[in-house]
Task: inverse folding
DNA sequence: GCGACCAATACGGTCGTACATATTTATCGC
DNA sequence: GCGATAAATATGTACGACCGTATTGGTCGC
């Protein structure tokens, strides 16, 4: 066929640039410079910047899937513990970036969903997939009698996912983990309470 | 002084353009064109685009203050009713825009907080002020025995505010009010429950 | 006539994208 | 084995448009 592609390299470094600067503000030249490739390489691998945006979204969410597998689907933990493990793991990753960059999915939701119908649709699909492991966890918790009656697991899952995005938003503004900690505190003492007995 | 300034006009129309396109993507020429003024007028009234951004933030939040006064501080409603009135009023405004544009504060939090320290600081101040009427409402509800013990009013207020931003984010992606409705459903049945008796 | 505002134009730089050409490599006929 | 071929990738450069900002002079009201 042909020689080894630098596409992966562009995606990896480009994702990083977009996380730092935002999708609109990150120029094609910023991306290729970070990847150490000439400008033309971008055109070769991506039909447009929008197409590139779709690919980094997929790449980012693939990583989220791994995180979900390691936490929400952990085999030997009770459901609510798995939930807590997920939020803790994300918090640790956000800490690595000094509470600066937040979540690519959330960032592009507010920045790019309006500009591009393709990106908006992809984001919607991502959120739909994202909800499932949460809903499963919550359903299991209720089944085991560890979660009081209340909203349906699907509703609760979407609520947690959305609210978590809101907490990350606040974290970005305050550059401080307090909003994340407040989230887990309120959620695990107020929202996900055990049934009365 | 001098002849009537077009600054207000630029701010009003510019705010609209920024809400539609995002702060980065909205060019100075877009703004002046929407206001029907020549380009130079922008330079005359704003030392930079960043300064303009700070002013539209203030302008936007002044409107939020009015909404708060009309709902969260309504004299003749019980506290939790006032909370619901606030979320309903915001939902009505988002509906006017076809669930497209979300909240300027949230948008700039994810898009511009990283680019400009001045904007980040202003956003933090806005959120701090925003929390107060919520915290008051919640404290009153607890005082009147209409809200179960749990998280401190300050924590709960920030949690609600953040989570509401998250719900708006999801609304923007799905272009549908379902996330907003889910928010109020979960919050008013699960988070803000009455004390046991 | 002075200060505040309006108006027009221009600057240097960057944007996303296009394109023509060169280089590398897997595959296949032989 | 081996050279030809075709496909995929790499590269360098250029386009036209737009970016935020600056500058200059005109115009109005006090």
Result:
């Amino acid at each position: 066929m042909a020689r080894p592609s630098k596409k992966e390299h562009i995606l990896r470094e480009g994702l990083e640039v977009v996380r730092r600067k935002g999708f609109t503000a990150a120029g094609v030249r910023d991306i290729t410079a970070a990847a150490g490739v000439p400008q033309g390489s971008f055109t070769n691998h991506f039909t447009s910047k929008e197409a590139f945006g779709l690919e980094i979204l997929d790449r980012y969410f693939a990583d989220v899937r791994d995180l979900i597998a390691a936490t929400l689907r952990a085999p030997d933990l009770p459901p609510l513990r798995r939930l807590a493990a997920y939020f803790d793991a994300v918090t640790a990753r956000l800490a690595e970036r000094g509470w600066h960059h937040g979540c690519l999915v959330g960032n592009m939701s507010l920045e790019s969903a309006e500009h591009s119908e393709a990106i908006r649709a992809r984001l919607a699909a991502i959120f739909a997939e994202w909800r499932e492991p949460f809903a499963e966890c919550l359903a299991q918790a209720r089944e085991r009698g560890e979660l009081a009656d209340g909203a349906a697991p699907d509703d609760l899952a979407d609520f947690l996912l959305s609210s978590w995005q809101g907490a990350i938003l606040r974290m970005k503004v305050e550059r401080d983990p307090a909003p994340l900690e407040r989230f887990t505190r309120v959620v695990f003492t107020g929202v996900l309470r055990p049934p009365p007995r």
Remarks:
- Residues 117-143 of chain A form the longest helix (27 residues).
